């Protein structure tokens, strides 16, 4: 039992190290850069436009996803429960709808690359030429 406890404790210490670096990606026809505050405003329904004036289409990974958790920790400062409460209030009051959801990093890349004005986030290791990195938080 002691060995199991030690293994569990060791895994808790190592687990933060395996979280990959998140990057904000955009459609190749969109802006080349964006600020943390601009991304936060898009994901918290405070803005609907990219820095170049295009209508923004933000995409979100599913709740419980490690890349999503890292993104929101760095950008919005909110966890999944706080985001769920925030969007429930936005929907209930008629102020807005949450970003469209992409099932995975690959789906996020596909949606961002095929949607003008799209913005999303993925693990930096998954970036390819179909999208461009516009922010490394």
What topology emerges from the helices and strands here?
Elements: H1 2-14, E1 22-26, H2 36-43, E2 57-60, H3 66-74, H4 80-92, E3 100-101, H5 105-114, E4 118-123, E5 132-135
Parallel strand pairs: 2-3, 2-4
Antiparallel strand pairs: 1-4, 1-5
What is the CATH first-level class name? Alpha Beta
Overall pLDDT, averaged? 89
Number of strands: 5
Poorly predicted runs are 4-18
For the record, what is the CATH homologous superfamily label? Periplasmic binding protein-like II
Rg over C-alpha atoms, rounded to the nearest angstrom: 16 Å
Number of distinct helices: 5
State which percent range the strand residues make up: 15-25%
**Helix residue percentage:** 25-40%
Order of helices and strands: HEHEHHEHEE
From the 3D coordinates, which CATH architecture would you assign? Answer: 3-Layer(aba) Sandwich
Structural class, by secondary structure, is: alpha/beta
Tell me the number of structural domains. 1
CATH topology tier name: D-Maltodextrin-Binding Protein, domain 2
Cα distance spanning the termini: 41 Å
Indicate the overall shape. Answer: globular
Largest sheet: 5 strands, mixed
Strand order of the largest sheet: 3-2-4-1-5
